[in-house]
Specification:
CATH class of one domain: Alpha Beta
Strand order of the largest sheet: 2-1-3-4-5-10
Shape: globular
Largest sheet: 6 strands, parallel
Family: Belongs to the NAD(P)-dependent epimerase/dehydratase family. Fucose synthase subfamily.
Helix content: 40-55%
GO molecular function, one term: GDP-L-fucose synthase activity
CATH superfamily of one domain: NAD(P)-binding Rossmann-like Domain
EC number: 1.1.1.271
Number of helices: 11
Keywords: Isomerase, Multifunctional enzyme, NADP, Oxidoreductase
Pathway: Nucleotide-sugar biosynthesis; GDP-L-fucose biosynthesis via de novo pathway; GDP-L-fucose from GDP-alpha-D-mannose: step 2/2
Strand content: 5-15%
Order of helices and strands: EHEHEHHEHEEHEEEHEEHEHHH
C-alpha cells in the first residue's frame, strides 16, 4: 500500500495474511493509515521465518522501520495437546529470528503478539500484565505458551542491553473474518460458526464440544486492529499490555453458541457433548491498563461482531473453511 507524501515509516507485518493481519490491512485501507506510513504485509510464502537467513533477507529486502510481529505456529486445544514440542521449537525459532533481524537492521519498534494462554494456570482473577511469569501455564499447550512468554523475556533483554523499543500485546480470544474456521484444529468461535453453517445445511443438530460453561473474553479482530495501530504509534512501554474487552463482557461458550445460532438463523437442536474436554474454565483478564491509556475506546458489541463474522464466513465459505 503506497502512501502519498514522504514515507517515514515502513511497517512490516509478519503473519500478514492471518486473522489479525487481514484485519489490520482492512483497517489501514479503510482510512486508519497515515500518509507517512507504508504498510508491507508478508506471509510464510514470502519467507520461512524459522530460517535465520530467510528472515534476515526479508528484513534487508523491505528495510522496515517498524514491525508488527504476528507470525506463529498456532492451533486449537486438540492440536496443541499432541504437538507441544513442535509448537515450542517453531515459535522459539520464529520469534528469535524476527527480533534479532529487527535489532540487526535497526528497526525502531517491534510490537509482538502474545496470547492469554501464556498466563499461569493456577492464578487469581482477573489476570493482569504483572502476572505472566507467576507459575506454569496450562499443561495442554505448554509448548506454545512458554515460547510466547519468552518474547516478553527477549523484549526486556533487547531493551536492557541495546535500548530497543520492542514490546508485546496480549489479546484475549480474537475472532473475525479470515480466521481458521477448521472444526478439528481451529479455535472455539470460528469452529462453532462452521458447525452451525453445516448443521443448517444438513438440517441436523448442532453439537457443541464440552459443557458450554467455560467463559471467555472475545475481541473482534477489527477492534484489535485499531488497538494495534495505537500501540504501534503511541504506546511506549516495553512491558506488555492486555488488549481486551472488560471483565463484564465475558461470555460463556453457551452464550457464544446462542449468538451464532441467532446470527445464522439456525432453528435446530443444540446438543452439548460433555465427553469432550472443556479446557480452562476461565482466564479472565483485566483491561485496566488499556482503559488507563484509552478510557474512551469503543468495542464493537459482541453480537454485532458475530453477525459480521458469520456473514463473511457464509459469503466466503469455499475459501474460509480450509
Amino acid at each position: 500500500m503506497e502512501a502519498t507524501g514522504p514515507v517515514t515509516k515502513r511497517i512490516l507485518v509478519t503473519g500478514g495474511t492471518g486473522l489479525v493481519g487481514r484485519a489490520i490491512e482492512k483497517v489501514v485501507a479503510d482510512g486508519e493509515g497515515q500518509p507517512d506510513e507504508e504498510w508491507i504485509f508478508v506471509s510464510s510464502r514470502d519467507a520461512d521465518l524459522t530460517s535465520a537467513a530467510e528472515t534476515k533477507a526479508l528484513f534487508e529486502r523491505h528495510k522496515p522501520t517498524h514491525v508488527i510481529h504476528l507470525a506463529a505456529m498456532v492451533g486449537g486445544l486438540f492440536k496443541n495437546i499432541h504437538y507441544n514440542l513442535d509448537f515450542w521449537r517453531r515459535n522459539i525459532h520464529i520469534n528469535d529470528n524476527v527480533l534479532q533481524s529487527a535489532y540487526e537492521t535497526g528497526v525502531q519498534k517491534v510490537v509482538s503478539c502474545l496470547s492469554t494462554c501464556i498466563f499461569p494456570d493456577k492464578t487469581t482473577y482477573p489476570i493482569d500484565e504483572t502476572m505472566i511469569h507467576n507459575g506454569p501455564p496450562h499443561s495442554s499447550n505448554f509448548g506454545y505458551s512458554y515460547a510466547k512468554r519468552m518474547i516478553d523475556i527477549q523484549n526486556r533483554g533487547y531493551f536492557e542491553q541495546h535500548g530497543c523499543r520492542f514490546t508485546a500485546v496480549i489479546p484475549t480470544n480474537v475472532f473475525g473474518p479470515h480466521d481458521n474456521f477448521n472444526i478439528e484444529d481451529g479455535h472455539v468461535l470460528p469452529g462453532l460458526i462452521h458447525k452451525v453453517y453445516l448443521a443448517k445445511q444438513t438440517g441436523s443438530a448442532l453439537t457443541v464440544w464440552g459443557t458450554g460453561k467455560p467463559r471467555r473474553q472475545f475481541i473482534y479482530s477489527m477492534d484489535l486492529a485499531r488497538l494495534f495501530l495505537w500501540v504501534l504509534r503511541e504506546y511506549n512501554e516495553v512491558e506488555p499490555i492486555i488488549l481486551s474487552v472488560g471483565e463484564e463482557d465475558e461470555v460463556s461458550i453457551r452464550e457464544a453458541a446462542e449468538a451464532i445460532t441467532e446470527a445464522m438463523d439456525f432453528r435446530g437442536e443444540v446438543v452439548f457433548d460433555t465427553s469432550k474436554a472443556d479446557g480452562q474454565f476461565k482466564k479472565t483478564a483485566s483491561n485496566a491498563k488499556l482503559r488507563h491509556y484509552l478510557p474512551g475506546f469503543e468495542f464493537t458489541p459482541f453480537r454485532e461482531a458475530v453477525k459480521e463474522t458469520c456473514a463473511w464466513f457464509s459469503a466466503n465459505y469455499a475459501n474460509a473453511r480450509k
